[in-house]
Structure formats: structure tokens, C-alpha cells
Design brief:
- The chain contains 7 helices and 5 strands.
- The protein has about 220 residues and is α/β, with parallel strands linked by helices.
- It has a 5-stranded parallel β-sheet, sandwiched between helices.
- Helix 1 links the parallel strand 1 (about 5-10) and strand 2 (about 30-35).
- The protein is rod-shaped and about 110 Å long.
- The model has no long low-confidence stretch (mean pLDDT about 85).
């Protein structure tokens, strides 16, 4: 893998120069460096590199804390480096959002492998997040479509229910008053307009009156 813009956070200038030399030999560009954690945070947020190599033991702000602060703002792969074997460092490194952990001394092969694995993990994570986001978006669209279908279904059911009530009211008018179906419908429509109420409400009134008075 070549052509990445890489930022180096290392408090030892000699070690930092060694990283720069190896990275250039591997075909990468060093876009910036810092000698302490606080500077690393501000410079990485400003430079927005493709990858960060961060030493854990740095003045001002340790590398794990710096990595945690950076990943809260930028979605970026970070390799944490230390000269000590420490289980708590490894645990904190994972929790900080770093993609890889390296122990000094580091040679060109170590660095090449770490960058390849770290960047591959980052891309996999990014693809997974994008896929999850796409699935979530599709589920949201499906939910909205389902909601619209439900609304249409409810409206259809209501229309069928209203139609039955209107037909029943027409039947009463036709039976009790000898109206033709068209005249019964016209009667319901005229009363709906006069009373400024829905047609089905007029039909309800007629049905209720028929039950009450049995006319």
C-alpha cells in the first residue's frame, strides 16, 4: 500500500526521523509531526491525514488520550506505538479507537505490515458503517412506505364502512318513502350540504332515527 498521507506523533526526534525515512521508502508522504500529545491533536485535526502513527508515552497528553480525542472528531486510522509491554496499554489502546498497536523497536517491515493491516481494518470498519447506514436508511424508507400503505388501507376500510352505512340509509329511504335509489342518494347529498356535515353522518342520523321511531 503506497501513497498515504501520514502524521507522526513521537517525542523522540531521532525516532521520528527514522519513521519519516522508512515511510518515504515505503512510498508514503509525511504530512506533519508533533513532539507532544496536545500538539498532535491540534495538528492532526488541522491536517486530516490518511493515517496517524502515535507514540503512547508523550508529554502533555499521552498518545492514548490524544488518539481518543482525535477519533471523537475524525474517523481516521491510528497506530499506537510503545516501548513497553503493558496489558493496560493494550486495553486502553483498543478503547481509544486505535486500529493497531506496535511495540518498539520498529523496523521497515514492522511499519509496512502495521500500515497495511491498520488501513485494511479501517476500510473494513468504514465499509461496515456505510453498509449499516444504508440498511438503516432502507429500513426507514420501508417503515415510511409501510406507514403510507397502512394509511391507505385504513382509508379504504373506512370508505367501505361509510359506503355500507350510506347504502343502508338509502335502503331505509327507498323502503320507507318509496324513493328511487338515485333520489335517495340525492336526498342524502342535499342534507349533507345543508347541514354542512359528511354524507356518512347524514346516513347515520337516518339509521338512528329509523331505530328510534321505527318509521
Amino acid at each position: 500500500m503506497t501513497g498515504l498521507r501520514i502524521f507522526i506523533a513521537e517525542d523522540d526526534p531521532t525516532v521520528s526521523m527514522g519513521y519519516k525515512s522508512m515511510l518515504r521508502m515505503l512510498g508514503h508522504t509525511v504530512c506533519g509531526s508533533a513532539l507532544d500529545g496536545n500538539s498532535a491533536i491540534s495538528e492532526v485535526l488541522k491536517q486530516k491525514p490518511d493515517l496517524v502513527i502515535m507514540d503512547i508515552n508523550m508529554p502533555g497528553c499521552d498518545g492514548i488520550t490524544a488518539a481518543d480525542q482525535i477519533t471523537k472528531t475524525l474517523n481516521i486510522p491510528i497506530i499506537l506505538v510503545t516501548g513497553y509491554q503493558n496489558e493496560s496499554f493494550i486495553t486502553r489502546s483498543t478503547e481509544s479507537g486505535a486500529c493497531y498497536y506496535l511495540q518498539k523497536p520498529i523496523d521497515e517491515y514492522d511499519l509496512k505490515s502495521a500500515i497495511s493491516i491498520c488501513y485494511a481494518r479501517f476500510q473494513d470498519s468504514l465499509n461496515l458503517k456505510n453498509n449499516l447506514s444504508e440498511v438503516s436508511s432502507r429500513l426507514e424508507d420501508a417503515h415510511e412506505e409501510l406507514h403510507e400503505v397502512k394509511k391507505e388501507l385504513d382509508a379504504t376500510r373506512q370508505a367501505l364502512s361509510d359506503r355500507k352505512i350510506i347504502d343502508r340509509a338509502k335502503g331505509i329511504l327507498m323502503d320507507k318513502f318509496g324513493m328511487a335509489e338515485s333520489d335517495a342518494m340525492k336526498y342524502l347529498q342535499n342534507n349533507s350540504q345543508k347541514q354542512n356535515i359528511r354524507l356518512v353522518n347524514v346516513a347515520h342520523n337516518i339509521i338512528n332515527a329509523d331505530k328510534e321511531f321505527h318509521f
